[in-house]
Write a structure and sequence with these properties.
The structure holds two protein chains of two kinds. By secondary structure, chain A is an alpha/beta fold. Helices cover 47% and strands 7% of the residues of chain A. In chain A, the strands form two sheets. Chain A has a five-stranded parallel beta sheet. Chain A starts with a helix and ends in a 14-residue tail after the last helix. By secondary structure, chain B is mainly α. Chain B has two domains: 178 residues, no CATH class; 217 residues, no CATH class. Chain B has 19 helices and no strands. The mean pLDDT of chain B is 85. Classes of the chains: A alpha/beta, B mainly alpha. At the A-B interface, helix 1 and helix 9 of A face helix 1, helix 9 and helix 19 of B.
Chain lengths: 326, 483
């Protein structure tokens, strides 16, 4: 057996050398103005705010689709837009929130549907880890994300390293997808006034009822977080992301099923219904989650109204768990 | 735990090291049982209870069968085993299907009912280990094998992690004796095992997952891409399912060989077959032989009248289709293959094995093409979401290929998406390598190249190509986990 072990170890050592070379080549000097670096600014702003804060959490649909000040108008909370990228997964945001919320805060979760069914992107995680290594622990904060790293993402991280190593044109973060594209509250504003682009429709397929199976794990995560919020005096609400009419029509069963699932199993109050976030295709910017300026205002106004109604106890969503919002 | 994950490549060396550190077969088997249950629990720990229960029931029935000579009591015992195994399989796999169909039949006659719908999760690999335990009790009943005297050996036979989830469906006569005797490390066997693992990982992550992008895009598009694209996607699916499933079998065999255990070969380059009969002798061999021994032959096999032989063939394929899944599409797939086999038998189609020359003659190519086309006809039903979709796709392929827009759609589909171009190139290269190396059990075998650095360079190239060509969807579950 000894010769076999020696040969195998030698072969693996050789592959490890290749791997080190590739990782070295695949990690060029990182600029500090990447889109992901905006999370540092959001955290700094959050920290700097005195008093109660309204923290809106989700992927880029929150970054590109919410006007924080409009959402918080006439409310007693100071707004912060905590949206960045859906593919980092919900765990990432919940982990950051656990470290940064305080009693009296209101957390408004606005996760994308992909986030709710646990669809994450290894490429995005890789880019985020590469740009901001400090967030690596937050990306793997739960058992689910650690398992996913071992089961699936590790391979893709290796692949991304290799692609970067041999790609003569590494991605350069410029234009609107940059740290400088956000305003003080963390809203993306660089796309205001820019013509909307051709959207790749195939990447926004209708959601199927089978996808709901994946939502149970997310609900468990959210319930844990809800428990944390309750014990720390933080208020928690959830709402839905923007959706096109055609995707809504194609995903009716899924959306109805999801809403019922959240009503039945989630220990968090739901602000409104999926159909309250329908927008026309022309109101999206470059993907079917990023709203153009005008639609963003509409959405923010709707959220503001829903929050007021909710706080006044006149919300049309029947489900309301006692004790979360007094 | 999936074979195509980092988790498995951390788990495997650990089990390997401890296994060979333990010298006694009993201790090695205890380790394998523990490791196998851990492997299985990685998906969902609740599945382990069912696996253990199923194993214990058949262990007890097997032991009792071996001790009794009473014919009636033996029949009752084997019937109990059948009811238990098929009952569990039926409940977890077919309950929803029967309820849905009963509901639609009753509503057809104006009786609207709202039956109890249970959200039943299908335990991974249930169809495989159920058939394996079933063959154990039937073989004891037929007095072909002795019952296992050791529970640990038996549990190792049922739960052996390399083949637990998607086969090969091993027979007790082959696998159990290997757990009973002392195992000696065989360097040649282990090296061949590693080659199988490397090739299996390449097949799964590069070829199958790459082709899945094309197949999912075309089959998942409600607007449709036209007949040419459907034809292309069906061919791609034929190779996707082959590479996906044979990759699992290769990795399973390779992994088992590291523990000095030999599993049966499950695929033997089936798409190079020149007749349907040959195809089914080379495709999912462990299942085909299972159905031959436990369904086809007990029905009378080929020893009955020609009409009855054909009926037996048809029925066997129909059951095989139903085994794959609780849907009408799988039943149709089985029926198509059954009918094709009946026709092939009637026409006395050639049963000779494929040519071994590098450049086959025209007739060989023609037969291979014809066989492949018939197999692809079945794959349309296998892949489609519903019968309506399958029939629509077949209509598109046969009638929609004659207009220029169908060709334009297919061209745009491939031309506009780099990942699809990559999928097509990968498919051509893969088929060429398998064709050239089809005389060997693993295409990575290079007996003529003795120089180690050259062999290592080839293995390294395959590994790094796997990493480089990894599609975004790579790492999906193996298709046969659904069965």
């Amino acid at each position: 057996m000894k010769p076999f072990i020696i040969k195998t170890v030698a072969f693996l050592a050789l592959q490890l050398c290749f791997l080190l070379v590739i990782c070295r080549m695949g990690n060029p000097e990182i600029s500090h103005t990447s889109y992901y670096h905006a999370m540092y600014d959001k955290l700094d702003y959050l920290e700097s705010l005195q008093g109660n804060r309204l923290i809106m959490v989700g992927g880029s649909s929150v970054a590109f689709g919410v006007d924080s000040k409009k959402v918080a108008r006439n409310l007693d909370w100071k707004p912060v837009n905590f949206g960045l990228h859906a593919a980092t997964g919900l765990d990432f945001y919940l982990s950051l929130l656990r470290r940064n919320v305080r009693a009296g805060d209101l957390v408004l979760l606005l996760p994308e549907y992909e986030m709710l069914i646990g669809r994450e992107g290894a490429e995005t995680k890789f880019e985020l880890m590469q740009a901001c290594p400090q967030f690596a622990a937050d990306l793997c904060s739960s058992w689910k994300s650690r398992k996913s790293l071992l089961d699936r993402d590790a391979l893709h991280l290796l692949h991304e390293s290799m692609v970067r190593a041999f790609d003569p044109n590494p991605p350069v973060h410029h234009g609107i997808y940059s740290r400088h594209g956000f305003n003080e509250q963390g809203d993306m504003v660089a796309h205001h006034g820019v013509c909307n682009e051709q959207i790749v429709k195939s990447s926004f397929r209708a959601l199927a009822s089978e996808d709901l199976k994946q939502a149970n794990e997310t609900i468990r995560l959210l319930n844990d977080f809800a428990e944390f919020c309750r014990s720390h005096g933080v208020k928690l609400l959830i709402s839905y992301p923007p959706i096109t009419q055609s995707r809504f029509d194609g995903s009716r069963d899924f959306l109805e099923g999801l809403h019922q699932l959240l009503l039945n199993q989630l220990d968090v109050d739901i602000l409104n219904r999926p159909e309250d976030s329908i927008f026309q295709e022309g109101q999206f910017f470059d993907t079917y989650y990023h709203l153009v300026e005008e639609a963003k205002w509409k959405r923010s106004a709707r959220l503001n109204l829903a929050l007021h109604q909710y706080l006044a106890g006149t919300s049309r969503v029947a489900h309301r768990k006692p004790g979360l919002i007094e | 735990m999936s074979f195509a994950s980092l988790t498995f490549f951390l788990f495997l060396p650990l089990v390997f090291a401890v296994y060979w550190k333990l010298r006694r077969p009993f201790a090695q088997n205890v380790l394998l049982v523990g490791a196998s249950y851990f492997f299985y629990a990685w998906w969902d720990w609740r599945f382990c209870g069912l696996l253990l229960l199923s194993s214990l029931v058949d262990y007890w029935i097997g032991g009792t069968l071996a001790k009794t000579d009473s014919k009636s009591w033996r029949k009752i015992l084997v019937l109990a085993s059948l009811i238990c195994n098929l009952g569990v399989l039926g409940f977890f796999k077919y309950f929803g299907f029967f309820v849905e169909n009963l509901q639609s039949i009753l509503s057809g006659v104006g009786w609207n009912i709202h039956p109890v719908t249970l959200s039943i999760v299908l335990p991974v690999g249930i169809s495989f280990y159920t058939f394996q335990t079933l063959s154990y009790t039937i073989d004891i009943y037929r007095r072909r094998i002795d019952a296992s005297s050791s529970l640990v050996n038996y549990l190792a036979f049922v739960s052996f992690f390399p083949q637990l989830v998607a086969g090969p469906i091993e027979r007790a006569g082959n696998l159990l004796p290997q757990f009973q005797k002392k195992r000696v490390f065989d360097e040649g066997l282990a090296t061949a095992g590693l080659r199988l693992i490397v090739w299996g990982v390449f097949k799964k992550l590069v070829v199958a997952d790459q082709l899945a992008v094309l197949v999912d895009r075309v089959y998942g598009a409600p607007e449709g891409f036209g007949g040419v694209a459907y034809g292309l996607a069906t061919v791609a699916f034929a190779f996707q399912i082959y590479c996906d499933f044979s990759a699992y079998s290769d990795i399973a065999r390779g992994t088992a060989q590291l523990f000095a255990i030999r599993l049966m070969r499950n695929f033997d380059y089936p798409y190079f077959s020149t007749s349907l009969g040959e195809f089914w002798r080379r495709w999912h061999i462990s299942l085909s032989t299972w159905f031959r021994d436990y369904v086809y032959i007990p029905l009378g096999g080929s020893r009955v009248s020609p009409v009855r032989v054909k009926f037996n063939l048809f029925l066997t394929f129909l059951i095989s289709g139903f085994w794959h899944g609780a849907a009408w599409t799988y039943l149709c797939w089985g029926a198509i293959n059954g009918i094709a086999m009946m026709v092939a038998r009637q026409g006395r189609c050639s049963n000779r094995s494929s040519s071994t020359s590098l450049f086959p003659d025209f007739m060989t190519l023609y037969r291979m093409g014809l066989t492949f086309s018939i197999v692809c006809l079945g794959w349309v039903f296998f892949r489609a979401e519903s019968l309506e979709q399958a029939l629509g796709i077949l209509y598109s392929i046969t009638c929609g290929c004659w207009n220029i827009s169908a060709w334009e759609n297919a061209w745009h589909l491939i031309y506009e998406d780099h990942s699809l171009q990559k999928a097509v190139i990968v498919l051509w290269l893969f088929t060429a390598v398998e064709w050239i190396q089809r005389a060997r059990p693993c295409p990575l075998e290079m007996p003529r190249i003795q120089y180690l650095p050259v062999r290592w360079a080839v293995y390294s190239l395959v590994l790094w190509l796997t990493v480089r060509l990894l599609p975004p969807t790579a790492g999906q579950q193996f298709i046969y986990f659904e069965f």
